[in-house]
């Protein structure tokens, strides 16, 4: 179980700090929830405590692991299907894992694809989301502001 003040990642939404743990009744069911404050986008998310492991909630990466993320961003692009629909599905699976390296791969591949030929609306939205997830984790892990993390991502890709 996580505690107040822990920095965690909620797959598909990004990293944040647990602000409080509260009990709520939703749809007639009493459950405990982590209230996660996500710094990028100024969002608050409620995560059920009892299903957080199944959802894929994890602690954020360490400051040292940011270098690994930057290396992944700078690395050669992965081979991706030419069919946008299949590519979208593969990238969505990577994002659902919540793994920082896989999220970085999605950001790298979609950014480079967008530079060569414009992405579909769905892939553009996915890139924005993936970048936001990566950004939020780098901000918390590296103790940096959003603008600096943004520049690091751009320079690495």
TrEMBL record:
Pfam families: CarD_C, CarD_TRCF_RID. Transmembrane segments: none annotated. It comes from the Bacteria. GO terms for biological process: rRNA transcription. Residues 1-111 form the CarD-like/TRCF RNAP-interacting domain. This is CarD family transcriptional regulator. It comes from Hominibacterium faecale.
């Amino acid at each position: 179980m996580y505690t107040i003040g822990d920095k965690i990642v909620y797959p598909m939404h990004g990293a944040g700090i647990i602000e409080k743990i509260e009990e709520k009744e939703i749809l007639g069911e009493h459950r405990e929830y982590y209230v996660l404050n996500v710094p990028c986008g100024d969002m608050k998310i409620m995560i059920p405590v009892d299903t957080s492991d199944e959802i894929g909630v994890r602690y954020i990466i360490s400051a040292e692991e940011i270098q690994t993320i930057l290396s992944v961003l700078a690395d050669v692009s992965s081979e991706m299907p030419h069919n946008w629909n299949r590519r979208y599905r593969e990238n969505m699976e990577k994002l659902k894992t919540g793994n920082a390296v896989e999220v970085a791969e999605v950001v790298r591949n979609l950014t480079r694809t967008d530079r060569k030929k414009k992405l579909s609306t769905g892939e553009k939205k996915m890139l924005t989301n993936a970048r936001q997830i990566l950004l939020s984790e780098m901000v918390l892990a590296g103790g940096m502001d959003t603008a600096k993390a943004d520049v690091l991502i751009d320079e690495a890709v």
